[in-house]
TrEMBL record:
This is Cytochrome-c peroxidase. The keyword Hydrolase does not apply. SUPFAM superfamilies: Cytochrome c (SSF46626). Its main location: other. Residues 172-304, 324-444 form the Cytochrome c domain. Residues 1-21 form the signal peptide. Keywords: Heme, Iron, Metal-binding, Oxidoreductase, Peroxidase, Signal. It is found in: Cell envelope. InterPro entries: Cyt_c-like_dom, Cyt_c-like_dom_sf, Cytochrome_c_Peroxidase/MauG, Di-haem_cyt_c_peroxidsae, Haem-bd. It comes from the Bacteria. It comes from Phocaeicola acetigenes.
Length: 448
């Protein structure tokens, strides 16, 4: 009887292994590369948790299991919406480099799908073959969509990239934009220019918690740096401006910042300067308009890139330019998921992320929630976008404090510790914090 029981158990186990292998086969090699990746993400059940409209499994109606399922779905969607990537794969559209970095990281770490999910949904498990296919696809896709031509071969597949020394611009517009950027006539009382809050002598910021506009009025959000803003996918913390030109058109009409009633007023004031008007019309024959003024400022701001950092030189192949502690800081930066949001040339500026992913930042802050704290929700009015902000770029970060949208962190050490706590759920050691800060300081441009 005992031998029969053992035999039956072995047969069941063998059958289970066979079924497991059958349902976890990698997608056919006959499929196109994007189709194979789409199949892996679909089989992995990514859309079951990381989407606005998840397909609930049958056991979601069970009392205990259902509660856990719904908690996992809520958490998964808060952290990552995979639907844009799935849609892009289906339609042949460009995939966000943030999405690439996030998917790459969880595959490398083996953290997705969750064990409690693939133990029930056997076909969702990431086998060694699926992992190989996925990481190879991400590497090839990144090389095509986000080529890292300046980096040494060993760093070509990094989620961050060196900045080019320059980008093509119209120098005539740049000169006019520079003049307008520093022109106080863009403010109603001739006291404030763009450079007042975004000084080029202090890394493109004013180093204040909140900037001061006309009539000594104080704003409600920390001024981000103007340097490398060219690389942001949108402008402002809440993303309300799609371009640098659109961003340049905001402050002049803001009653707290520069206070003009309309661009007609600004154009009238500038037109009184006949010498400037003559020069301006040589580049813009239509003269002063909101579109021409903001276009010139945009062209100038596109030149405000900072490629000469020690980290750029390291990525380009100078292995001796960083210390062991700085290199370890970069490794920790990647280990603790910082490089899944702080990607690209500017190490950020490519996505909106929730402030307080793993802990209640605003509850712990202990001050009243302001309208600026709503983040992207200010524009979309959707619940998911509450407290979600455009990720700031990290270049020259040691010079641009105080930090966060609310300017509450005075030191880089404080900002790093809280980012790890609230976004990753990690309490950094003193040594880890020190090394990450040392790495971040390698992002400072040599000429600032």
């Amino acid at each position: 009887m005992k031998k029969k029981f053992i035999l039956v158990a072995l047969l069941i186990a063998a059958g289970a292994v066979t079924v497991y292998r059958l349902v976890n086969q990698a997608p056919s090699e006959s499929l196109a590369a994007n189709e194979r990746m789409l199949a892996i993400l679909t089989d992995g059940g990514c859309m079951e948790c990381h989407s606005a409209t998840p397909k609930l499994p049958f056991y979601a109606n069970f009392p205990v299991a259902g509660k856990l399922v719904k908690e996992d779905i809520e958490k998964g969607y808060r952290e990552f919406d995979v639907e844009p990537m799935m849609t892009a794969l289906k339609n042949g559209e460009k995939i966000s480099e943030v999405d690439l970095a996030k998917v790459e990281k969880v595959i490398k770490d083996g953290t997705m799908p969750l064990a409690k999910y693939y133990l029930i949904h056997w076909g969702s498990s990431m086998t060694a073959k699926k992992t190989e296919i996925s990481l190879d696809w991400i590497k090839n896709y990144r090389a095509q969509a986000y080529p890292n031509l300046l980096a040494a071969a060993e760093f070509a597949n990094e989620p961050v990239r060196p900045i080019h020394d320059s980008i093509p611009v119209d120098i005539r517009k740049v000169i006019l934009g520079d003049m307008l950027f520093h022109d106080t006539r863009l403010s109603a009382d001739n006291t404030v220019s763009c450079a007042t809050c975004h000084s080029l002598n202090t890394a493109g910021v004013d180093n204040k918690q909140f900037s001061v506009g006309i009539k000594e009025q104080v704003g409600g959000v920390n001024a981000p740096t103007v340097f490398n803003a060219h690389y942001n996918f949108v402008q402002f913390w809440d993303g309300r401006a799609a371009t640098l030109a659109a961003q340049a058109g905001g402050p002049p009409l803001n009653p707290i910042e520069m206070g003009h009633k309309s661009f007609d007023d600004i154009c009238k004031v500038l037109s009184e300067d006949k010498a400037f008007e003559k020069v301006f019309m040589e580049v813009y024959p239509e003269g002063f308009t909101e579109a021409t003024i903001t276009d010139a400022i945009q062209e100038f701001e596109r030149t405000l890139i900072t490629p000469n950092s020690r980290f750029d030189k390291y990525l380009k192949g100078d292995k001796n330019i960083l210390t062991a502690e700085e290199i370890n800081g970069y490794d920790l930066f990647k280990k603790y998921n910082c490089a899944t949001c702080h990607v690209g040339e500017n190490l950020g500026g490519q996505s909106y992320e929730l402030m307080g992913m793993r802990a209640d930042y605003f509850g712990d802050r202990g001050t009243e929630i302001t309208f600026e704290d709503h983040g992207r929700n200010k524009e979309t009015k959707t619940e998911r976008d509450m407290h979600r902000f455009k990720v700031p770029g990290l270049r020259n970060i040691e010079l641009t404090g105080p930090y966060y949208h609310d300017g509450t962190k005075k030191t880089l050490e404080e900002a790093v510790i809280d980012m790890a706590k609230y976004e990753v759920g990690v309490n950094l050691t003193e040594s880890e914090t020190a090394d990450i800060v040392k790495f971040l300081k390698t992002l400072t441009n040599d000429n600032l």
